[in-house]
Amino acid sequence: MRKKTIAIDMDGVLADIDAQLIDHYNKAHGTTLSKESIKGLTSDVAFKERDFIHKLLHSENFFRTLPVMPDAVESLLELDKDFEIFIVSAATEFPISLSEKMAWLAEHFPFIKWDNIILCGSKRIINTDYMIDDHCKNLDYCMGKPIMFTAFHNVNQNHHIRVNNWKEAVALLKETL
C-alpha cells in the first residue's frame, strides 16, 4: 500500500527563521522585537529596515545556522513511519541558500533522503496528499490538504486548517491514518 505523502516547508516550519531574523535585526538596530511583539504583522511592517532584511537573506551562513523548530526532528521521525515526507522549500529566490539548506537538512534531518528534498521557486506544482507551510501563497495552491503552521505573519489568516506546533501537526496527521 502506498504511503500518504506530505510536503513540508523549511523556513518557518522546520527552521526557526523568525527567531534568527529577530535576533539579527535587534542586534543591528538596537531594537527589542520579539515573536510576540510582531504577532499579526506582515514582514514589511515588523521589519521596517527592508534593505537590511534583504541583505541578511542573501548573506552567507544565514540559512545554514537557523535553529530547528521545537519537536521538529522527533515529529518527522514519527511521521516518517507512516508517511512519505518531502521537504519543499522555495529556495531559488535566495541562491546562496541552496547548498546551505542541503547542509542544514543533512545535519538535522539525516533520515530524509536527497531525492525527497525539493528546492524550487514556486510550490504550485507540488502534488502531495498534505502540505505543511506557513504561507498562504503556497497553501492556496495546494493540490492536497493544506495545513498552516502558525507564524507571526499568518495569525490573522484563517482559511486553512492550522497547527501551532509540531505536536499538533503529528496528532492531526495521525488522525488521518
From TrEMBL:
The active site is at 9 (nucleophile), 11 (proton donor). GO terms for molecular function: 5'-nucleotidase activity. Its EC number is 3.1.3.-. It is an enzyme of class 3 (hydrolase). InterPro entries: 5'(3')-deoxyribonucleotidase, HAD-like_sf, HAD_sf. GO terms for biological process: pyrimidine deoxyribonucleotide catabolic process. SUPFAM superfamilies: HAD-like. Keywords: Hydrolase. It comes from the Bacteria. Pfam families: NT5C. Belongs to the 5'(3')-deoxyribonucleotidase family. This is 5'(3')-deoxyribonucleotidase. It comes from Flavobacterium panici. The lineage of its organism: Bacteria, Pseudomonadati, Bacteroidota, Flavobacteriia, Flavobacteriales.
